[in-house]
Amino acid sequence: MILYTIMPHDAVFPVEESEYSNQSVIEWNGVQLLVERHSLTQCRIIQVLSTNPEDFMNVMTQPGQMLSMEPVPEKQEFL
Amino acid sequence: MDFKNQGEPPLNPTNPSDPKQPGPSKDQDKTKSSLVDKIQQLGQTNVPAMDEQSNIHCLTIIGQIEGHMQLPPQNKTTKYEHLIPQIVAIEQNPKIEGLLLILNTVGGDVEAGLAISEMIASLSKPTVSIVLGGGHSIGVPIACSAKYSFIAETATMTIHPVRLTGLVIGVPQTFEYLDKMQERVVSFVLKHSNISEDKFKELMFSKGNLTRDIGTNVIGDDAVAYGLINEVGGVGQAIKKLNELIEGQKQKGDYVQ
């Protein structure tokens, strides 16, 4: 199919709502991360949102890593 | 809800003798498999970590500059609501002495781009920008907003009039609105770079440079020759210049005291 139109791509093929809600920004040890939900408890890191070059050196928050999220009873702190 | 690292104990590259690290004997398989996972995910095993805190922070502006409209997730975007608190934090934090701005952007929302540019231009700390690959459209004022700017030899900047992508201009007032918006971009660039108004407008409205479009694609050396960017260079030169500016700022501070 070849389209010849002045309309932008997004106007011709609207994006589904669910694609927006899949991604979210979370805070992990004081660093903001853009993550993609994979299941209820797992998400994959897409981007590190920080200006500190050190944060990009952290092996735990490299893009592509999986983070698992668990509700912690009583104590509300990072395990 | 809290976030927990998946299974394995935290790897600390600066402290390999961490007692929590899996021992070489029975946990070796596990280490090996997690190493394989890392290679599959990242294409690399580890990155070197620096011991001391960096006094230079780095702001990367990539993909499209996203403004009031949220772009579909397959687009790579820089969101101004993410950048602005970071710029505020950089201004406030006394440990941060300089800001390096790295651009590889195709442009985007005019208001968001100008907001970022104004924030960077008003920072009291030394700022150095570097255009790698491309700094097109609204990337031009962002590149100029730093106190000193670099462009990679092969990097390009497209200068063209402001417009609504693909949609037809409806009424004469729409044109005036766009014209005013463009004037804001032009005046910002003139104020923060060495290019003359005539030259900038000539580049913006020239025909025949871009296929079936008006504007000019300015490459590395030309951007410096026109006065749009200060110098051709890479990350090494940019960091060196930033350190010089930081040193200069410190000396100035000493005289005041």
Automatic annotation (TrEMBL), chain A:
<dbReference type="Pfam" id="PF14035">
    <property type="entry name" value="YlzJ"/>
</dbReference>
<dbReference type="InterPro" id="IPR025619">
    <property type="entry name" value="YlzJ"/>
</dbReference>
<protein>
    <submittedName>
        <fullName>Uncharacterized protein</fullName>
    </submittedName>
</protein>
Automatic annotation (TrEMBL), chain B:
<dbReference type="Pfam" id="PF00574">
    <property type="entry name" value="CLP_protease"/>
</dbReference>
<feature type="region of interest" description="Disordered">
    <location>
        <begin position="1"/>
        <end position="34"/>
    </location>
</feature>
<keyword id="KW-0378">Hydrolase</keyword>
<dbReference type="InterPro" id="IPR029045">
    <property type="entry name" value="ClpP/crotonase-like_dom_sf"/>
</dbReference>
<protein>
    <submittedName>
        <fullName>ClpP family protease</fullName>
    </submittedName>
</protein>
<dbReference type="InterPro" id="IPR023562">
    <property type="entry name" value="ClpP/TepA"/>
</dbReference>
<dbReference type="GO" id="GO:0008233">
    <property type="term" value="F:peptidase activity"/>
</dbReference>
<keyword id="KW-0645">Protease</keyword>
<dbReference type="GO" id="GO:0006508">
    <property type="term" value="P:proteolysis"/>
</dbReference>
